[in-house]
Design brief:
This protein has 336 residues and is an alpha+beta fold. It is built from eleven helices and 13 strands. The strands form four sheets. Strands 1, 2, 3, 4, 5 and 6 form a six-stranded antiparallel sheet that branches. Strands 7-9-10 form a three-stranded antiparallel sheet, with no helix packed on it. A two-stranded antiparallel sheet has the order 8-11. Strand 12 and strand 13 form a beta hairpin. The longest helix is centred in the C-terminal third of the chain and has 18 residues. It holds the Pfam family APH.
Length: 336
């Protein structure tokens, strides 16, 4: 994460500043007069602002980490191919030079920004809403995977490589998180399931198809936040999506999972799940715990960022996937 002054308690004002709003408007070609922005979302890596210029709203993402957005043009090509196949998604807005990532000078905060068309939808929230989206979810993921687009870069380590467990244990102790409900044992169990993906089976995947990245609008659902796109085995993304949407603690929404899988197959996806399909879910779950604990103990981060990371860490540990539930999911996927 981008280092800030140790004495800072809050994240930078960024688009709360008229100077930054004007700079962003100028870069994207929007009229800066009377333009204003408000924060509408906060994620692990940044914030989303609703910027209104000349009466028109835009979604502007602000990146607080130094990582990410390495191939924005490739992401846009993937998104465009998905839209051509029938997937709904917001438009990515380019800068005047055709690039998609704006980095402001240090005098204006030094952060990076991207812009998208604005949607007035709400994210999928709650068990009933997740179940109601099962048909759409299966169809959309099947459409994405049936494209079979080939990656040009290897997968990010986030999806296949995990930290040393001794280091992670020490980090959790430093974050004053301890070992609630045997999280150390659960992490070790998940770590044993992490294996590299078959290079020949990888395709381009969205890699962040979660309820918070689906907007429900009057005219349908849209898939947002394509930033993490990259190489992965489709069965690993399928397994991750099933668990993130329809596993809650020891419980599974069997009906929703079955409908999701049926629509996935009908849209061209292939259901080939075994225990190894959960390797990516295990890796990302462990890495998310590690990433949030790292922010908690980093005194160069503003207090607001450390507090957010502490909340995320507690949630991430509580929601570590249950291998027993994974086995139940496999039995559902194996049904004819």
């Amino acid at each position: 994460m981008r280092a800030l002054e140790e004495s800072t308690d809050r994240l930078p004002d960024s688009l709360g500043s008229e100077v930054v709003v004007r700079a962003v408007c100028d870069a994207f070609g929007w009229p800066p007069e009377d333009a204003h922005a408000v924060v509408v979302g906060r994620g692990a890596m940044g914030r989303v602002w609703k910027l209104t210029a000349a009466g028109r709203a835009y979604a502007v993402k602000e990146m607080l980490w130094d990582e990410g957005w390495l191939d924005a043009a490739g992401e846009v090509r993937f998104r465009d191919a998905a839209v051509a196949a029938g997937v709904r998604a917001p438009d990515a807005i380019a800068l005047g030079d055709g690039e998609y990532v704006l980095r402001l000078p240090e005098s204006s905060g030094g952060l990076r920004y991207r812009a998208y068309s604005w949607s007035d939808g709400t994210t999928v929230s709650g068990t009933a809403a997740r179940a109601g989206a099962a048909d759409w979810l299966g169809r959309t993921l099947g459409q994405l995977h049936s494209l079979r687009l080939q990656p040009v870069a290897p997968p990010d380590d986030w999806y296949e490589v995990i930290p040393d467990l001794g280091e992670l244990e020490a980090l959790l102790t430093a974050a004053r998180h301890g070992d609630p409900a045997g999280s150390g044992e659960r992490i070790a169990e998940l770590a044993a399931m992490v294996t590299p993906a078959d290079p020949d089976a990888r395709i381009l995947c969205h890699l962040d198809v979660k309820p918070a990245n689906v907007l429900e609008e009057d005219t349908g659902r849209s898939l947002i936040d394509w930033d993490d796109f990259g190489a992965a085995m489709p069965n690993r993304e399928l397994a991750s999506v099933l668990m993130r949407w329809y596993a809650e603690g020891p419980d599974l929404d069997v009906d929703a999972a079955e409908r999701m899988l049926a629509n996935y197959s009908a849209a061209g996806g292939t259901v080939e799940l075994d225990a190894s399909a959960f390797a990516m879910l295990c890796a990302t779950s462990i890495n998310y715990v590690h990433a949030q604990a790292s922010v908690v103990v980093d005194r160069s981060q503003p207090r607001e960022a450390r507090d957010f990371a502490a909340d995320e860490l507690r949630s991430a540990v509580r929601l570590l996937p249950d291998p027993g539930v994974m086995r139940k999911m496999l039995s559902i996927a194996a049904r004819p």
